[in-house]
Amino acid sequence: MTLQNDAPFTIAGRNFSSRLLVGTGKYKDFDETGAAIAESGAEIVTFAVRRTNLGQEAGPNLLDVISPSRYTLLPNTAGCYTAKDAVRTCRLARELLDGHKLVKLEVLGDETTLYPNVVETLKAAETLLADGFDVMVYTSDDPIVARELEAMGCCAIMPLGSLIGSGHGIQNPHNVRLIVEQSSVPVLVDAGIGTASDAAMAMELGCDGVLLNTAIAHARDPLRMARAMKSAVEAGRDAFLAGRMPRRQTADPSSPFAGRING
Amino acid sequence: MHIQLNGEPYTLEAGLTAADLIDQLALTGRRVAVEINEEIVPRSQLATTRLAEDDQVEVVHAIGGG
């Protein structure tokens, strides 16, 4: 017997072997950022676009640490609260990366929850798709909104597990499962992952991938947590493909009854 | 000449181009993107784009984020 290979993980026409996507925020320094990302095995790495600090000595650049030749870069619109700002940010990112089309769209509702503002997200997605962007979209775990975003042409649907940076895991696995079952484009849990079992759970629900940042960056040992996340995503994916055993109300011995010495 | 640069007032000589501004900011050769009055200025056009009074200029770069 031999194990069948998994289907490739495809985003916007490109195949990837890692189903773990990571952010670059909240690390102690660029050395830790680079080492943790390398340890995670991630191939797609997200970053933010911000005003340059004027009048300060320019230090090392993030893009020297996560080189565009090694990683598929995923600029995000974190911090945008309107469709207009998100679209401007994506256009700046495209210029920054010499015509790069893949973006992570997130339009947030308020600073307390960072919950997606789906009305503005839908508006921004429409403009970006018309402008030729490949849009991976952060959204609520609402299957109807997810279906709408897919119908518009988004290349990946990314419902939150729980609030960004909260580490509360997947609060509504049933909704995530509904989104997975109805979608023909990749579904990734983006936000809320706190530890390895949360990432494994996302994959066991049938998600195509997981995007996380704080769970690694704010672990006591980020490099070890990066490795844990890599293993968890792989284990969860294998468990999903394998298909779990049915649950039973009563015990079912693994050793046969027949031939017991007390029989 | 006065412009708004990254949300702050900034004074510079009249007649300068966006490339001159980037040079003044010691950002030449750095990976940045420039927007003037909410329109992207492609890198290839920085040297030919003249700044005007009250322009709203944004100069951005990549930073860590999730």
Task: Compute the number of helices of chain B.
Answer: 1
Provide mean pLDDT of chain A, rounded: 96
Unreliable stretches of chain A (pLDDT < 50, length at least 5) are none
Radius of gyration of chain A: 20 Å
Shape of chain A: globular
SSE topology sketch:
The complex is a heterodimer of chains A (263) and B (66).
Chain A: E1 9-11, E2 14-16, E3 20-23, H1 30-40, E4 44-51, H2 62-65, E5 72-75, H3 83-96, E6 102-105, H4 118-130, E7 134-139, H5 143-152, E8 156-159, H6 173-182, E9 188-190, H7 196-204, E10 209-212, H8 214-217, H9 222-242
Parallel strand pairs in A: 3-4, 3-10, 4-5, 6-7, 7-8, 9-10
Antiparallel strand pairs in A: 1-2
Helix pairs in contact in A: 1-9, 3-4, 4-5, 5-6, 7-9
Chain B: E1 2-5, E2 8-11, H1 18-24, E3 33-36, E4 39-41, E5 56-64
Parallel strand pairs in B: 1-5
Antiparallel strand pairs in B: 1-2, 3-4, 3-5
Your description of this structure?
- The complex is a heterodimer of chains A (263) and B (66).
- With 263 residues, chain A is an alpha/beta fold.
- Chain A is built from nine helices and ten strands.
- In chain A, strand 4, helix 2 and strand 5 form a beta-alpha-beta unit.
- Chain A is globular.
- In chain A, 48% of the residues are buried.
- The model of chain A has no long low-confidence stretch (mean pLDDT 96).
- Chain B starts with a strand and ends with a strand.
- The longest helix of chain B has 7 residues.
- A five-stranded mixed beta sheet of chain B has the order 2-1-5-3-4, with no helix packed on it.
- In chain B, strand 1 and strand 2 form a beta hairpin.
- The interface between A and B is medium-sized, with 38 and 27 residues.
- Strand 4 of chain A pairs antiparallel with strand 5 of chain B, so a sheet runs across the interface.
- Chain B: This is Sulfur carrier protein ThiS.
- Chain B: InterPro entries: Beta-grasp_dom_sf, Mopterin_synth/thiamin_S_b, Thi_S, ThiS/MoaD-like.
